Task: structure prediction
Amino acid sequence: AQKITQTQPGMFVQEKEAVTLDCTYDTSDPSYGLFWYKQPSSGEMIFLIYQGSYDQQNATEGRYSLNFQKARKSANLVISASQLGDSAMYFCAMREGLIYNQGGKLIFGQGTELSVKP
Amino acid sequence: EAQVTQNPRYLITVTGKKLTVTCSQNMNHEYMSWYRQDPGLGLRQIYYSMNVEVTDKGDVPEGYKVSRKEKRNFPLILESPSPNQTSLYFCASSFIAADTQYFGPGTRLTVL
Result:
């Protein structure tokens, strides 16, 4: 079974509008972390935002926010006021608690390619 | 500037010719890791190092070696590269394993 599922292979958004990228996860570990990374066409992997499983509030970082719904096991990324430079591949990732994940491994979804239209 | 650096960024080589991809971080991070990214397979962990004392295999270690002689460096060694090791390789580091991992710029390797 997929541990991280991103159901939107590609999305379009108009510049200055908000967009939500979906991510659902599957784990039985009570302690885990959820991450979003951005990969532009140049290839680097850029950290955007982090949510811990015990965090009570949704994480925010500038124009990025994470809509964390623990009971539904979803961790959607919301980008407000999209910019042309937001066009990239976006990856959701999970790190399970170190009891089950001795290697600190991140498990990545397949990614969503976001295109921002002028 | 706090960063993870990798060299080379691009490499084309031939089967069997030993190569090393270097990784260095200037953030005093204990934890370092290598991933490879392949279309349809996503990112998979190759090796990780909790600190200079502990290094271990990830999900896809076959054909790779690593060393962690000092905290800042974590080179990836391909003793006898094969075409199935053609991939985009990322080094990542974090203060500890339970912290956010920051990635290097990637190394695009082609093995002919």
